[in-house]
Amino acid sequence: VAKLLDVCKFYGHGDLQVKALDKVNLEVNKGDYLAVMGASGSGKSTAMNILGCLDRPTYGSYILNGLRAEELDDDALADLRNDELGFVFQQFHLLSDATALENVMLPMIYACVPESTREELAKTALERVGLIERMQNYPNQLSGGQQQRVAIARAIINQPSLLLADEPTGALDSSTTEDVLNLFDELHGQGITLVLVTHEDEVAKRAQKIAQFKDGKIIDIT
Amino acid sequence: VAKLLDVCKFYGHGDLQVKALDKVNLEVNKGDYLAVMGASGSGKSTAMNILGCLDRPTYGSYILNGLRAEELDDDALADLRNDELGFVFQQFHLLSDATALENVMLPMIYACVPESTREELAKTALERVGLIERMQNYPNQLSGGQQQRVAIARAIINQPSLLLADEPTGALDSSTTEDVLNLFDELHGQGITLVLVTHEDEVAKRAQKIAQFKDGKIIDIT
Ligand SMILES: Nc1ncnc2c1ncn2[C@@H]1O[C@H](COP(=O)(O)OP(=O)(O)OP(=O)(O)O)[C@@H](O)[C@H]1O
Ligand SMILES: Nc1ncnc2c1ncn2[C@@H]1O[C@H](COP(=O)(O)OP(=O)(O)OP(=O)(O)O)[C@@H](O)[C@H]1O
Ligand SMILES: [Mg+2]
Ligand SMILES: [Mg+2]
Fold first, then answer.
1. d(C-alpha B105, C-alpha B118), whole Å
2. pLDDT tens digit string along B89-112?
């Protein structure tokens, strides 16, 4: 369903140039549950951003549902993102002047879900992450782990076919982490394809396969 | 050196009121290395903000170096913070339009360190966290774990007597986490008092004591 083909990503120029991804090849099949691990700065978030159509490769190709992402213009890419993808960002990126409930409803507005059903679906998602009684709060009134959970609820609200989660349990204690991993198992059971970046072994072993990044390359898939 | 005495913290009013801290008592002695653990939303960051003079209790008292923090005005509190405390925030809070080097130098400007020595000390701190070659980059050009390490370098630059770190290894892989924990051991060996929030057992067991938070209370100190 998603394929990175000889993907390279460079940032900057000359002396300061950073090679974030170095000829990365990765195939994600429908229904896979893949964990991505690797040292800080090894290219994981960069790869996730390309998978999520939030960034384009410098060289190489990204094929999603048979379409070459680099051949789509920005609008077509945005539509693809809204319909097919859910993304949990490493730093959440919640809208600071929207409540938890409004933040979770946002993707549904882009996907043209009728207003009457939006609130109900958003409340269900917030219940699923244990935050229904905080739905009227703004992100700066929520703890780090609570913000992360709102970001997770927002990512799953449109029933995406591909869920990309960049360290989705990084700010969570072990018991809340367990709840989130159970939620991911449930989504996987419903046929959703998951790619999760994590640096914790307990989280990675819940996946089917683990891809190891090092210096912008994938050195191993187990 | 730092004592929370019957500290209560409320946010909001009426139905939406949240009791973040509920009669918290905590004594941190000079040279201690304390880990703080507990579920998402249990009050850890709130307690850290009070310890760091970034927030005041609703009821109760915070005594730092023999002074009641609530009796100091905002300027006196700011001075105390700059001279005595180092803080690694759960969400880093780096200045987005300053380079990594400039971000690390900032606390020294407030502490009136002469300009000639500032750059040198900042480079040493960045070397210590493995980021010297990225010193000219801005935070949005750095990975999550790199930003976290810049935040750590900034927190230790003024040789604070009390280092407060809110999930300082949350975005780091295990090998980079090990480097940071070795750095903390080194600082502890030099007499610095450390309080670290973490949700990972491997990190917590490097400390001398662990305080467990639950629903705004400390239920256990081992
Ligand atoms: N400005 C605020 N207004 C309302 N509630 C708040 C505010 N700031 C924090 N809270 C609430 O206070 C409680 C404690 O928050 P705190 O940030 O201390 O938790 P935490 O233990 O650090 O959690 P985490 O592990 O998720 O970071 C949470 O329920 C949080 O939502
Ligand atoms: N806009 C940018 N300009 C320059 N370098 C960048 C930029 N964005 C990312 N990089 C660099 O690309 C490399 C890979 O970054 P990436 O965010 O993918 O790492 P990561 O594996 O997610 O790390 P972490 O585990 O710390 O989150 C890093 O060295 C990073 O500093
Ligand atoms: Mg990353
Ligand atoms: Mg917190």
1. 6
2. 999 999 999 999 999 999 998 888
Q: Decide if B17 touches A, using CB distance below 8 A.
A: no
The answer to whether residues B173 and A37 touch, using CB atoms and an 8 Å cutoff, is yes
Sign, CA torsion B129/A20/B169/B108: positive
Helix, strand or coil for residue A222?
coil
The secondary structure element, H or E, covering residue B7 is strand B2-11
- Low-confidence spans in chain B with pLDDT less than 70: none
User: What are A161's two structure tokens?
Assistant: 């076919």
Of B18, B41, B173, the CB nearest to A40: B173
Binary contact (B199, A39; C-beta < 8 A): no
Q: CA nearest A174 in B: which residue? A: B199
Contact check, Cβ <8 Å, A173/B91: no
- The residue in chain B having the minimum alpha-carbon distance to the alpha carbon of residue A212 is B173
CA of A147 to the centre of ligand 4 (A): 10
pLDDT at A74: 86
Residue A196 tokens, joined: 């999760």
For A119-171, the pLDDT digits (tens) are 999 999 999 999 999 999 999 999 999 999 999 999 999 999 999 999 999 99
Q: What share of chain B is helix, strand, coil (3-state, %, to 5)?
A: 40, 25, 35
Is the CB of A170 inside a 6 Å radius of any atom of ligand 2?
Answer: no
CA distances from B22 to A114, A191, B57, B90, B121 (A): 42, 44, 10, 22, 41
